[in-house]
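Below is how a single chain appears once it has passed through the pipeline. First comes the sequence as given, then the structure the pipeline wrote out for it. We keep one example in the README because the format questions we get most often are answered faster by looking than by reading.
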Amino acid sequence: MWLAIAAVLAAAVVLSGAAPAVVNIGGFSAALSAAEARWERSFQASIQPARLRADMRTLSAAPHNAGSARQQQLAGWILQQFQADGFQAHLEPFDVLYPTPIARRVELVAPHHFVAGLKEPEPDAAGALPTFLMYSADGDVTAPLVYVNYGVAADYATLNRLGVSVRGKIVIARYGQGWRGIKPRLAYEHGAVGCLLYSDPQDDGFARGAVYPRGPWRPAEGVQRGSVMEMTLAPGDPETPGWGSTPGAPRLPLAQVTNLQKIPVLPLSYADAGPLLAALGGPAAPPSWRGALPLTYRIGRLGPGTAVVHLAVKFHWGLARINDVIATIPGSTDPEAWILRGNHYDAWVDGADDPGSGQAALLEEARGLGALLRQGWRPRRTIVYAAWDGEEPSLLGSTEWVETHAAELNEHAVAYLNTDMSQAGQLRVGGSQTLEAFMNGVLRAVPDPSGAGSEGDAGDLTIRALGSGSDYSPFLDHLGIAALDLGFEGGGGGGVYHSALDNFYWYTHFSDPKFLHERALAQTVGTAVLRLADADVLPFEFSGFAAHVAHDERQVEAAYHAQPHANGVDFKPLRAALGALKRAAIAYDQALAARPLSSGGGARYAALNRLLAQSERQLLEPAGLPGRNWYRHQIYAPGLNTGYSAITLPGLREAIAAGDEAAAEEQTQALTQALAALTRQIQAARADL
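Resulting structure:
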C-alpha cells in the first residue's frame, strides 16, 4: 500500500554485485561469521523465479478480498505451504467491521444529464468487489459541484484566497499528493456534503504512457478502490479500538466509532469524471490545477449553468471473518526473542502486484528457510512468519493480531520486517533508523537483480522514516517494535493500483516479467531475517539514528522560529538530550568495536540483547500523540494531513504547525524525556559490554 504515495524522499539503493567473501558480519563473532555466510549463500541460491511466478499465479487467479470464499481458500493454501516448509503454523481468526456497498450512484443533473458508469473496462470477475471506497458514510445528496484539485490542505487555502467556498457542495478531487482518506475528511471540515475522487490521466493515465492492455498505465475506465477510514487516528477494526477483535470480543456501537468518514465518497474513472468536470463553469482553474483531460479545468460557479451532482452511497454495515496465517520456527537457544516477518494476502480484486508480489516473496523465503532446516540449520531466536488478512481495508489483520498479543510482543519482539507490493526498479527501505547500518551490511551480501553489479558504494543506504499505509504500523507506531518496510519500485510503471487490472497479465508484461527483482526481494528480506535470528549481538546502531533525529530537530526549531512572535518554547533541554544521546551512541559503538565478539550460545549476551531489543520501546509516549492516542511513537508517525507519508517528531511538529505554544512546549518536554530514556538504555547496554 505505501508504494502508492509519493516516495521521493526515499533513498534509492543499488544492491551490490556478486556476494563478496565475508570477513566478519556485524553482530556475529568471527567463529560464526563464516558459518552464517555459508547459510546465507545456500538460502539465496534456493530462491527460484519460477516458484515466485507460480505462487503469484495462484495468489492472483481470482478476486480475493477479505472475507470472501476465495480468500478463505487461500488462507488454507498458505497454511499448507508453511507446514510443508517445516513451520508450526495455524490460522488466527478475527471478526471485523467490513461494510460493503449495496447502492452507488453518481449523476450530473444540471446543466444536462449524465450517469456515471462506475464500472471498469472488463466485465467484473465473479466475486469481485465493485468500485467503491470502504468506510465512506452512507448518504444521498444533491448539490453543486466544485473542483478542488488534489483536495489537500494547500488547495483549500487557494480556494479561500479565490473566495470560493465548498460549504454545502459536493467536491471532486483527483488522486495524488496525499492519501485518499484525508480528502473527504478535509472536504467535510470545509463544509462539503459529498466527495468524489478520480484518477486524472496526467497523474495516472495516457499522459504518462501507453495504457492497459498496450501499456502499464491506467485506462479511461480504470478505477482506484481503497479505504478512507481515518487511519491517521487509528487503523484496525474501528469498533475495537485498542483491543483485538477476536470472535466474541466486545465491540463499540457503530454510532460511537470516531474514525469513519462523515460524508459519502466514491471513486471515479477519468472516463466518468470527464463529463462532470466539463460541466463546470466559472473562471479557469489555476495552471497547476489543470490535468490532462481534453477540457478546460474550471473550479465551478453558482447561478445559471451551475453543475449539480447527485451522489448516493449505501452500505451493508456487517462483520467479516478474516484469518491471519501465523507460522513459527522455534529458536534453539533464545526462543523467547522473536523475529517477525509479514505481508498481507488480501486484495481489492486479483492483486498480483498488491499484494501478490510481496506475498510470493514471503512464501519463497519460507521455502528457503525450510531448505535450511532440512540441512540442519536451527535459528538461535524464534522466527515468526505472518500472512495478514484484511490489510487493504485498514491494516485489520495485523492490527488486531498486535492488539491481541500486545503483552507478549512487548516482552519478546525484537524486530518486524514488512513487504507489501514490489516491482522492478530500485530498492526502497523505510523504518527504524537504528537498523540502517544493519541493512547496509545485508545489501552488500545480496546480488544485484540486474546483474550490473554495484554503481558505487553499496553502503550508502539511508532508511526513510515510516508513517503508515502497511502492516508495519501497529508494530512500530503502537508498540515501539523496530520495523523495516522493503520493496522495489519505479521500474514497472503505475496505472493499475487497486483496480481489477492489477492482475497476472499486467505484472508479467509490465512490471517484473522474469521475476528477478522478486527474487532479489526474497533474498534481501530472508537474509535480514537470518542475521537477526542468528546474530550473537543484535545489530542495532544508534549513532546514525541520533544524527537523523538531530537533523529533524534543527528543521523543527527553524520552522518554529520562522513564525512571528515565536518565543515561548525552550529547545535547550531537547538539544541537550540530543547531545547526550549522541555521546552515548558513540560510546556504545566504540565499546562494541573495541572487543571482538565471542560465540557464547544464548546466555553470554542475553542481558545485552534484551536491552537492545527493548531500545525502540523507550521512544513511546504511553499517553500517545495529542488527539490520537493509538499512535505512541515520539519519532515516527503518519501526518494528520498527509496520511501515509511520515512526519518525524510528530507531536512537536504538529503543535508548531497549529501555532499552539503550550502544546509545543509540552511536546518538547515529552520528546526530551523519550530521548533521555533511550540514552539510558544505550548506556546500560554499553555497561553490559
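The CA atoms of residues 492 and 511 lie 4 Å apart.

See the next section for the split statistics.
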